[in-house]
Amino acid sequence: MASESSTPTGEVVTRFAPSPTGFLHIGGARTALFNWLYARHHGGRTLLRIEDTDAKRSTQEAIDAIIEGLDWMGLDYDAPPLFQSDRAERHAEVAWQLLKAGHAYKCFATPEELEAMREEQRALKKPLRYDGRWRDRDPAEAPAGAPFTIRLKTPEAGETTIHDRVQGAVTVKNEELDDYIILRADGTPTYMLAVVVDDHDMGVTHVIRGDDHLNNAFRQLPIIRAMNDIEGGWPDPIYAHIPLIHGSDGAKLSKRHGALGVEAYRDEFGILPEALFNYLLRLGWGHGDREEITREEAVALFDLGGVGKSPSRFDMKKLENLNGHYLREAENARLAALVAARIGEGADEALLARAMPVLKVRAKNLNEVVEGAGFLFAKRPLAMTEKAASLLEGDARPILRKIYEALRGENDWTSEALEATTKALAEEQGLGLGKLAQPMRAALTGTTTSPGIFDVLVLLGRDEALARLDAQAA
Ligand code: GLU
Asked: In sequence order, which residues have a C-beta less than 8 Å from that of residue 53 and are 6 or more positions away?
C-alpha cells in the first residue's frame, strides 16, 4: 500500500495552530482532533502552536482555555507549545533572505498612495490588489530613508494546483495572487509569513486545517517554493482543508448553534470528554455507519480519505445520545467524583458511587445525573414537585402508613426483600403494586421520576427511608 506521506523520512508531523483570540470552540477542537489522530495513526508527531501575533486580540485567558480544553479532550502534544510571537526575529530573517535572493522586494508605496490605488480599482470595479508598482523598480528611486515594506514576488503567469487530501485538486490562476507584504514597515512579520516559517521550522509535513484557509495555501506556497529554491529542504506540505461545521439549520455555526468553547460542553452541558471526542470525530469523518468509536479504535482507523467534502451539521441531540452511551460505560467512581463536584457542599461521593449504576442509566448528561441524585441529599421535610404532591392525595397517605408499618418490620434491607414485602402488602390490600409504588416514590424522592423504588429504599438506608415514609404517612 502506498504511504500517505511524501516526506523523505516518511515521518508524519501535524500541528494545531489556534489563534488565541477566543476559546477553543468546537470547530477548532475538531481540527485539533483530526491533526492529533492523523499523527497518532501514522506513528508521527503532533505539535501545538499558539498563533498569538495579534497582540491586541490575543489573551492569556484564551491561551489557558485552549490548552485546558485540549488537555480535557485527551489531546496531548509531542513538544511544549510554540508561541508564534516569540519568533518574530526568525520570521524577519526569512523575509530578508527572500529579499536578497530576489524573491521579494522593497515597496516604498505610502499608505496614501496605496489607498489611491485601491480607490481607482474600486471605481473601475477591478479586484483590489497591489499592482506591483515596486516589483521592477530600482529602490534607489525611493527618497533616502523612506519607510518600506517587503513584498513577496508571486508568480505572475500560469496557475497553481494543490492536491488537497480532502478537497481534491484545486487550481488558482497565479495572476489572482498579488505581491503581498511579508514584512511590515516597522519590521514585524505578517501572519502569512509567520505560518509558513513556523511550519517549516517545526518540520510540519501535513497541514490539516479548516477550509477557510484554503485560499491562504495558495499565498503561502510561493514562499515555501522560493525558500526551497534558495536553500532546499522546504518541500510543499501535504494539505488537507476540512469543511467547516454548520449549525443544524445548515447556516454557518454561530453561538446560537452551539459554537461555544469546549468548556461550555463540559461545564454547562455536562458532556464527557470521550463523548465530545467521538462526536467531533464523527462530525465530518466516517467509517461505515459506526457511531460509537473509542479513542483506540479512532487511532487505528482514522485517515483523511474518510473526511467528507461537504460541511457537517452540528447536532446537540446526537452528541447527547453519545454522551448517554459513554455515561453508561464510565466507571462509577469517576462519575461520582464529577457529580459530587457539581453538587458541591453536602454531596456524599461514596453514596453517589453506590447510586451511580441506577442514576446513570437514564441520563444523557451530568446535569441529569445531578438532578437524578437530588433525592439522595434532600432534607426532610422533602420539597415536593406539584406532580409528586398530587400522588399523595386521596387514600395515598393511609396506604403509606401501611407500607411504613410493613417495612419497619423488615430486617433484611435489600431490594429483593423489600420488594417481596411490598408485593405481599399489595396483594393483601388487593391493590396493584403501582398503587403503592407511586406514593412511595413521592414520599421518598419528592418527585415522580426516580430509579426503581426498591433501589431508592436501599440507597437511602433504613432510617432515612422509614423517616421519609413516616413523614408523609397519615
Ligand atoms: N491560526 C489560524 C486559525 O486559528 C490557523 C492557521 C493555520 O492552521 O494555518 O484559524
From this structure: 84, 85, 88, 189, 191, 194
- The closest alpha carbon to 415, from 373, 462, 381, 375, belongs to 462
Peptide bond just before 381 cis, omega within 30 deg = yes
Cα(39) to ligand 1 centroid in Å equals 18
Given a contact cutoff of 8 angstroms between Cβ atoms, the answer to whether 52 and 83 are in contact is yes
Over residues 171-227, the pLDDT tens digits come to: 999 999 999 999 999 999 999 999 999 999 999 999 999 999 999 999 999 999 999
Write the Ramachandran bin of 232: left for phi over 0, alpha for psi from -120 to 50, otherwise beta. Answer: left
- Kindly list the catalytic residues: 255
Helix (H) or strand (E) holding 337: helix 332-343
What does the angle CA 72 – CA 75 – CA 78 come to, to the nearest 5 degrees?
A: 135
- Does 51 sit in the ligand 1 pocket, CB within 6 Å? yes
Helix, strand, coil shares, percent, the chain, to 5: 50, 10, 40
pTM for the model: 0.92
Per the CB < 8 A criterion, the answer to whether 224 and 200 are in contact is yes
Distance CA 259, CA 253 (A): 6
CATH number for the segment(s) 13-245? 3.40.50.620
Q: Return the CATH fold of 386-472.
A: Arc Repressor Mutant, subunit A (1.10.10)
